[in-house]
Every structure is written in C-alpha cells, then in structure tokens.
C-alpha cells in the first residue's frame, strides 16, 4: 500500500457536552465530599449526588487517587483562568488585587482538602508542586500588566510579590489568617505603587 493511500488518524474528539457536564458535576460534589469526609468519602455517594451512576464516575475517574488529583487540578485551573477573565473586565491594579484575593480563597479551600490530597501517591506536596507554574504564570501576567500601566513601579518583581503572598500562607492553620492575608495583599500592593 502506498503512503498516499494510508488513511490519516481521525481527529481527536472533544468530549460530548453531557460527558463534560457530568465530569464537572462529579468534581464539584467530590470536592464537597473530600472537604467534609476526607479521603474516606464514598465514591458511590459522590456519584449519587452528581446524579449519575457509579459506572459513569469510574469511567471518568478510575481510582480514588485520580479523582482527588482531578479535584485539585480543576481548582488550580479555575484560579489560573480567572487571571485573563479579570484582565478583560477590570483595570490592571484591580484585576491583580482581585486575583490575589481569589488566591487566598483558593488556599483556604485547599487547606480543607489537604487531608484527602495527602493520601495520594506523593502526597499533597507533589500535587501542589505540579501546579506552581500555572499559578505563577497567571499571577505574573496580571502583575506585568499593572507594571506596564504604571500602577506598580517599573522595578517591581512579580516573583517578589508572589513569594510574599505565598509566605502569608505559612500562617494558614492559625484562626483568622484569611483576614490578615487580605490586609497584607493591600500592604503589598501599596508598597509597590509609584512614589510620585
């Protein structure tokens, strides 16, 4: 058979809309269940709450570890996707501040699911490490936009701001840390503003 007659592989298909909807519902109910019950959450109960059969859940997520990882990854992807959405709808500094506040909410909800994340191979630190680049690039794009607009000083290093923000999260197990983190976001932004 000549190369001209070799059929090309079919194009990759997008998931059907109902399959995508099922996946999103599973992830939402799984997040609630893992937050409430940890890794011991019933997968059958997650399927029931999502309005699907257990077979559908296992088709999307063959193991508990795969589901836990997918829940965390979906939350990180939502956080990263908020960056361009905020940039399109808000002035640069407002978009940066809104994203930083959303990052605090992300960490707060992540703290609730960490016990479940710690049960997967490599634990929560492996999952968190794998998400750093996505978070860093979303933040850097917003910070660079605020620098380019003149809202932040030209010598502002987005990595410094992100390191300071991440440093705040070392107090995440202390009561009331979210309010402190929100105040510190405003301090970080104010300290990075032009002086004249």
Brief descriptors of the model:
mainly alpha, 71% helix, elongated
Topology overview:
Elements: H1 17-37, H2 43-50, H3 54-60, H4 64-89, H5 92-117, H6 123-148, H7 158-168, H8 177-191
Helix pairs in contact: 1-2, 1-4, 1-5, 4-5, 4-6, 5-6, 5-8, 7-8
Unreliable sequence segments: none
State the secondary-structure class.
mainly alpha
Which shape, going by the Cα principal axes?
Answer: elongated
- Summarize model confidence as the mean pLDDT: 87
Give the strand content: under 5%
Structural domains: how many:
2
The major sheet is characterized as: none
Describe this protein's structure.
The chain is mainly alpha-helical and 196 residues long. The protein has two domains: 16-62, Arc Repressor Mutant, subunit A, CATH 1.10.10; 69-196, Tetracycline Repressor, domain 2, CATH 1.10.357.10. The chain has eight helices and no strands. The chain has helices spanning 17-37, 43-50, 54-60, 64-89, 92-117, 123-148, 158-168, 177-191. The longest helix has 26 residues, at 64-89. The model has no long low-confidence stretch (mean pLDDT 87).
Short description:
This protein has 196 residues and is an all-alpha fold. The chain has helices spanning 17-37, 43-50, 54-60, 64-89, 92-117, 123-148, 158-168, 177-191.
């Amino acid at each position: 058979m000549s190369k001209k007659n070799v059929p090309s592989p079919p194009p990759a298909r997008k998931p059907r809309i109902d399959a995508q909807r099922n996946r999103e519902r599973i992830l939402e109910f799984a997040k609630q269940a893992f937050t409430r019950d940890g890794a011991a959450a019933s997968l059958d109960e997650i399927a029931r709450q999502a309005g699907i059969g257990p077979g559908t859940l296992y088709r999307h997520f063959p193991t508990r570890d795969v589901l836990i990882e997918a829940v965390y990854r979906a939350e990180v992807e939502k956080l990263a996707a908020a960056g361009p959405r905020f940039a399109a709808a808000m002035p640069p500094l407002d978009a940066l501040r809104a994203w930083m506040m959303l990052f605090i909410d992300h960490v707060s909800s992540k703290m609730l699911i960490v016990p479940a994340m710690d049960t997967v191979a490599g634990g929560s630190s492996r999952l968190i490490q794998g998400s750093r680049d996505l978070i860093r690039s979303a933040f850097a794009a917003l910070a660079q936009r605020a620098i380019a607009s003149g809202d932040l000083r030209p010598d502002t290093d987005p990595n410094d701001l992100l390191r300071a923000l991440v440093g705040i999260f070392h107090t995440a197990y202390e009561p009331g840390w979210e309010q402190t983190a929100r105040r510190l976001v405003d301090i970080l932004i104010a300290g990075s503003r032009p002086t004249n």
